[in-house]
Amino acid sequence: MPKHVAVIMDGNGRWAARRKRPRAIGHRAGARAVNLCIDWCLERGIGALTLFAFSSENWGRPEDEVGALMKLFMGALEREVEELDRREVRVRFIGERERFAPALRARMDAAEARTRRHGRLHLNVAASYGGRQDIAAAARALAEDVAAGRLRPEEIDEAAVGARVALADLPPPDLFIRTGGDLRISNFLLWQLAYTELWFTDTLWPELDAATLDRALADYAARERRFGLTSAQVAAPGTAAATDTDNPSP
Ligand code: IPE
Ligand code: IPE
Ligand code: MG
């Protein structure tokens, strides 16, 4: 069972295009799938869910689409926070919050404050988020610590960087799911996905159902995560058998 699932919610525009409707209608339809995904995590006992809602690059979309998305975020925050609170979901936002309008930022802050004490599900919403920007911000934080004399350059290692990227307090995602059929990461959690199992489906985000998510889970369960080791080492860690099979002595 994965502890942390990360999802690129993609395909809203194509879902709408197939119905000859504006893209904004696709985004609205996608909101339903967000709730489905949260419920699915709660039912399966998955402790952390990170959803890619809006990338740093998505700011470059046509003004009316960005505007429609902002309205949708505002509405969703108003509507859903109470329900999330009731279901003991802790909501957090990662990404450049300063880029959002003050009213939206205020709702994000309020949603975080209201659900802060929960831990049944950590719901992380990546909004105005980019993986490169996340790593660059960590580099800046390291530089500031060095400049202030709190850190020596030789102390900068993977743990030091990892402590300064988004979601540092959670285990890295075990399973990555992307809907919409495109086989790429699109600047999502670049650092955090280093050893995540990747799973892709042609299903468009608004059409997501629990059966599709269960298929991802079944595929995940059948995979062997080796983290750079050999199959024998993973099967029997630390035993002589593992060593013998892989490095037969002369
Ligand atoms: C994902 O759906 C939602 C956002 C990026 C906000 P898209 O809008 O990218 O849908 P497609 O990929 O064009 O179908
Ligand atoms: C990734 O989808 C971002 C989100 C789902 C929020 P995009 O639709 O922006 O990704 P590309 O442009 O196809 O790579
Ligand atoms: Mg897309």
Fold and architecture overview:
By secondary structure, the protein is of the alpha/beta class. The chain has a single domain (4-243), classed as Decaprenyl diphosphate synthase-like (Undecaprenyl pyrophosphate synthetase), CATH 3.40.1180.10. The chain contains nine helices and six strands, in the order βααβαβαβααββααα. The chain has helices spanning 12-18, 23-44, 63-86, 102-115, 131-147, 158-162, 210-222, 231-235, 240-246; strands at residues 4-8, 48-55, 89-94, 121-129, 175-178, 197-200. It has a six-stranded parallel β-sheet, sandwiched between helices. Helix 4 (102-115) links the parallel strand 3 (89-94) and strand 4. Helix 1 packs across helix 2 and helix 3 (63-86) runs parallel beside helix 4. It is globular. The two termini are 40 Å apart. The mean pLDDT is 96.
Order of helices and strands: EHHEHEHEHHEEHHH
Number of domains: 1
Helix/strand/pairing class, anyone?
Answer: alpha/beta
**Segments where pLDDT lies below 50 for 5+ residues?**
none
Strand order of the biggest β-sheet: 3-4-2-1-5-6
What is the CATH topology? Undecaprenyl pyrophosphate synthetase
Sheet-strand content, in percent, reads 5-15%
